[in-house]
Amino acid sequence: MRWRRRPSGRNLPWREVDYVAIDLETTGLDLKRDAIISYGAAVIRGGRIIVADNSYGLACPDSDISPQSIAVHTIRRVDVADAPSPEELARTLSDLIADRVVIAHSAWIERAFLDNALHRIGQRMRAPMIDTAALCRALGLDPDLIADPRLEWAANQLQVPVVSPHHAMGDATTTAHVFLAAASILEARGYTTGQSFIDLTAGDRHTRASGHRPN
């Protein structure tokens, strides 16, 4: 029998909430012009990564792939010539994030590109998000407190695996490990529900937008 996903239940204890850690590789970083070229999705359920449910895929974008992006993720136009269309990708992503809390590192980037992708099929990015960079700042790991710490640096600080850097599935898995480690520590500081991490992310975004540096 196919397992049916339950609603995200954000106010439940955080280990009882369903999450998906998302990483996107793109043709560039221009939100108006560039598009997703690959995605990785690491599913978290019951406070652990469910490897069997993880998902990775390529997409054939409308835009050119910048040389700078190829240098990072090594994905060329020839590699995606037969990959799904942006619309097919959007439907896949829509299904992946449905009834789940989305986790990403420097989540504003993933949120923006997800929203652009979903717009192609008449949807918006409405899934709640947790930013692992914000969790790192809450832990005091980031000495700058304003700039986002690099994902690999955060993983090393939390002593969790760094999996295949700059590959979408590898980075999604690393992000999932960072979240689980950070959430376990923050739980002792009163962050006990999925919603508490969503609120922490929203508060961090507001603080950074205002230019305020915490004492």
TrEMBL record:
Residues 18-188 form the Exonuclease domain. One of its GO terms (cellular component) is cytosol. It holds the Pfam family RNase_T. SUPFAM superfamilies: Ribonuclease H-like. The keyword Phosphoprotein does not apply. It comes from the Bacteria. InterPro entries: Ribonucl_H (IPR013520), RNaseH-like_sf (IPR012337), RNaseH_sf (IPR036397). The keyword Hydrolase applies. GO terms for molecular function: 3'-5' exonuclease activity; nucleic acid binding. Keywords: Exonuclease, Hydrolase, Nuclease. CDD domains: DEDDh. This is Putative nuclease. It comes from Gordonia rhizosphera NBRC 16068.
